[in-house]
Amino acid sequence: MNRWILALALSFTLLAQAQSPGGSLTVSFKDDISTLDPAIGYDWQNWSIIKAIFGGLMDYEPGTTKLVPHFAQGYSIAKDGKSYTFKLRKGIKFQNGREMVAADVKYSLERMLNPKTQSPGAGFYTGITGVADYVAGKAKEVSGIQIPDPYTVRILLDKPDASFLHKMALNFSFIVPKEAVEKAGADFGHNPVGAGAFKLKEWKLGQQVVLERNPDYFQKGLPYLDTLVFLVGQDPNVAFLKLQRGEVDILGDGIPPAKFVDVMKDPKLKQQVVVGNQLMTGYVTLNTQIKPLDNPKVRQALNLAINKERIVRLINNRAVPAVQVLPPGMPGYDPSYKGYPYDPAKAKQLLKEAGFPNGFSTVLYANNTDPNPRIAQAIQQDLAQIGVKAELKTQAQSTVIQAGGTKGQAPMIWSGGMAWIDDYPDPNDFYWPILSCASAVPGGWNWAWYCNPTLDRRAEAADAMVQPGQEAARAKAYQGIFAEVMKDAPWIPIFHEKRYLMHSPKVGGSDAILVDPIHTPVNYAYLYVKR
């Protein structure tokens, strides 16, 4: 029996405090904004700006990971978990004045899935029925995206996927008007038209992007700000000085590393810093297809050899040591799991049992941007204590990514700079893209080249738990899956990094909004100017 999930009085409004509307805030960035096309943008800088301009069928309660309907009024899930039906709100307007209808949802998803769009998010949606034929050019539409009437969208899946609603809250699924895309052509990313809280007012390449309040936004009273200015080309150290002078309100690139200790020691400046947890894990991959790392005992020994507390101190304690794949706050995280303690003596014993009493030589790749070389050196030193000689290869991020995705090339990789941050707050996002058999492919992100078919089947079974009320059982299932992963030890989890956001005294908004776990780095729709 289908069960309808409705948005009860728009729980978003619980956080929409009665603040005085108006005013402007300025955010600084070192690099220019690449694109504001939701089908294409996929970096931490444009992620939350796109969320401010566009929206999708689903979203999250501000400052939380709780899914709620957004442009959808509600949804239902078929009993077999392979059909989702969404009812659109009536009266939602695009920023060109036209009402949003179901055909826009179908168009937006098919545009994103079209290989010509080259969307980096298309892989999240391959489970929709008919996508394979559409991508291969065998069909002109995706048969599993249906529009029974102007305000209803039905999406069919090849198999149940409990994370599917999260995917409908990802930027890649955000809804765009066909006529605006066709008018702008390849330049839609610089001429965005959505139905979100803000709309584009001005874009001066290399200088600034200015957003203004969308008066037709369906959540009355939001956003609070009249304008939102993104200054680009700002050296982080210069931006820090501008913040102190009141010329910048949010440091988009974070606190400059050279200033971090001074800021946190200064009682006044520290009050302008908000700290929050990220759903992320920084880790070392151990290539399970390269000797001697193909031996589980060797991989377990390397896990025991790393002093994670020391590494956390290297980054001024801006993280907590990791003992498992999942970060705290993610469903399936096991707070009772202790992992591999720092125990060099036991590590040596395991190496001896594995047939390497004198250790061995290997290669550790790392991103060459600070602090990653220093972290890699600390790992190298710890490994040397158990007789493992790791040659360091610190290279550009793109080169490291290429090495990781090339079978047999990189024995070990420190993931810093590319650590896994959730695409959506569901445990399967920490399994399928980076630890499954399907992701152990050239160009993939499973740099451990780890494949356990039994765990793949268990993950599929967990993802079939789609009905309301099954969340706890599914989290427990993933808890067991990741416990088995840690026995096989294809990773050395190192730390879960925290987020530090520095702002001017005039920025208003709760800590949960300023370090929102979904709207990285900030949930702009809920910011306001303190009067």
From TrEMBL:
<dbReference type="InterPro" id="IPR039424">
    <property type="entry name" value="SBP_5"/>
</dbReference>
<dbReference type="GO" id="GO:0043190">
    <property type="term" value="C:ATP-binding cassette (ABC) transporter complex"/>
</dbReference>
<dbReference type="InterPro" id="IPR030678">
    <property type="entry name" value="Peptide/Ni-bd"/>
</dbReference>
<feature type="signal peptide">
    <location>
        <begin position="1"/>
        <end position="18"/>
    </location>
</feature>
<dbReference type="Pfam" id="PF00496">
    <property type="entry name" value="SBP_bac_5"/>
</dbReference>
<keyword id="KW-0732">Signal</keyword>
<dbReference type="InterPro" id="IPR000914">
    <property type="entry name" value="SBP_5_dom"/>
</dbReference>
<comment type="similarity">
    <text>Belongs to the bacterial solute-binding protein 5 family.</text>
</comment>
<dbReference type="GO" id="GO:0015833">
    <property type="term" value="P:peptide transport"/>
</dbReference>
<keyword id="KW-0813">Transport</keyword>
<dbReference type="GO" id="GO:1904680">
    <property type="term" value="F:peptide transmembrane transporter activity"/>
</dbReference>
<protein>
    <submittedName>
        <fullName>Glutathione-binding protein GsiB</fullName>
    </submittedName>
</protein>
<dbReference type="GO" id="GO:0042597">
    <property type="term" value="C:periplasmic space"/>
</dbReference>
<feature type="domain" description="Solute-binding protein family 5">
    <location>
        <begin position="66"/>
        <end position="438"/>
    </location>
</feature>
<dbReference type="InterPro" id="IPR023765">
    <property type="entry name" value="SBP_5_CS"/>
</dbReference>
